[in-house]
Design the sequence.
């Protein structure tokens, strides 16, 4: 069993990782400044350190007794990253450098990092494999790519065993038995929660219906957060030898915005009010993962459907 430092463990994906790790018998220390995370999402079985990734001494203190890291902490909104690139460089890149420095000084060498498909930019190919050239089109994607590069360097220089998991569109929620852990962002920008929140007076804005796709709306690859975390736990368990590996996590198939809306209408048994808006800057038409590497290296395939992601997000909604 491991003792895992989970940065961003009060956030959407990090809190579900912390829960799953605890359920699997691991010890967990959560490191989060609660800037976007929620105190009520923190599992009482975990040790909690409330601090920023920019506070290296708190990071070192939190690392003591841990043997590995799952690093989810950071800023994650593409639009905000365009408005505040320096903030994203500071928290995501400098913060991650601090995590790696604290690992080195505390003798911790195993890390799973929360990377993103945003590193690929606007690809002309689908599905995208990990050897596709990374050409991010926004500061958020740049910061995730920088950290992937940093991990490669540290694997060589410091002997770290590291895996970057590049997420496509994460959705869904987890029922712990006593509560739901889900996506409680403010502001919310992601499609599935926005679809569920849509009302006649506040309809879902569909960002373009003139894309070069069969129904004219963008296609994305949605993966259930519980499947995603299962891949993390496997990846962590496999980190033995120094080196850095990049693996996509998605479902390997795509759904259009219109297909997501139709699926939600069936599940909710009502129509979702929508209005067509202009294209959102920086959106690629199609973003679908090749998950062959995850299948081969992690023996992982997602098992939860788009319908279960929508259903779980609906049940978790506050
Ligand atoms: N969309 C709408 N209306 C909305 C919200 C989204 O039409 O109100 C559309 C978007 O244009 C896009 C799709 O729904 O075509 C999905 O949008 P999301 O904002 O849910 O997700 P993204 O694909 O933009 O972003 C996701 C992750 C990012 C990551 C990116 C990788 O949320 O963190 O994939 O490119 F960077």
Sequence:
């Amino acid at each position: 069993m491991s003792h895992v430092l989970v940065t961003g463990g009060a956030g959407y994906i990090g809190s579900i990782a912390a829960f799953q790790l605890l359920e699997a018998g691991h010890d967990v220390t959560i490191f989060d400044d609660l800037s976007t995370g929620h105190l009520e999402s923190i599992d009482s079985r975990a040790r909690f350190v409330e601090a920023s990734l920019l506070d290296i001494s708190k990071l070192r203190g939190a690392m003591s007794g841990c043997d590995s890291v799952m690093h989810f902490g950071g800023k994650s909104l593409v639009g905000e990253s365009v408005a505040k690139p320096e903030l994203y460089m500071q928290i995501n890149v400098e913060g991650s450098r601090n995590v790696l420095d604290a690992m080195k000084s505390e003798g911790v060498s195993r890390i799973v990092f929360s990377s993103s498909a945003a590193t690929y930019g606007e690809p002309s190919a689908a599905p995208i494999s990990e050897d596709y050239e990374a050409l991010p089109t926004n500061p958020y994607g740049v910061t995730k790519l920088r950290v992937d590069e940093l991990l490669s360097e540290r694997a060589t220089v410091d002997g770290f065993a590291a895996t970057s998991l590049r997420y496509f569109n994460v959705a869904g929620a987890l029922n712990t038995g006593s509560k739901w852990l889900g996506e409680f962002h403010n502001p919310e920008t992601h499609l599935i929660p926005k679809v569920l929140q849509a009302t006649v007076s506040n309809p879902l804005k569909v960002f373009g219906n003139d894309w070069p796709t069969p129904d004219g709306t963008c296609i994305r690859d949605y993966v259930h957060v519980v499947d995603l975390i299962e891949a993390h736990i496997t990846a962590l368990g496999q980190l033995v030898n120094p080196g850095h590996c990049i693996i996509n996590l998605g479902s390997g198939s795509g759904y259009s915005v219109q297909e997501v809306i139709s699926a939600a209408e069936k599940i909710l048994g009502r129509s979702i009010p929508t209005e067509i808006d202009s294209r959102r800057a920086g959106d690629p038409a199609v973003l679908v993962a090749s998950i062959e590497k995850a299948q081969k290296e992690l023996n992982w395939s997602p098992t939860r459907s788009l319908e279960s992601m929508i259903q779980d997000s609906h049940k978790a909604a506050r």
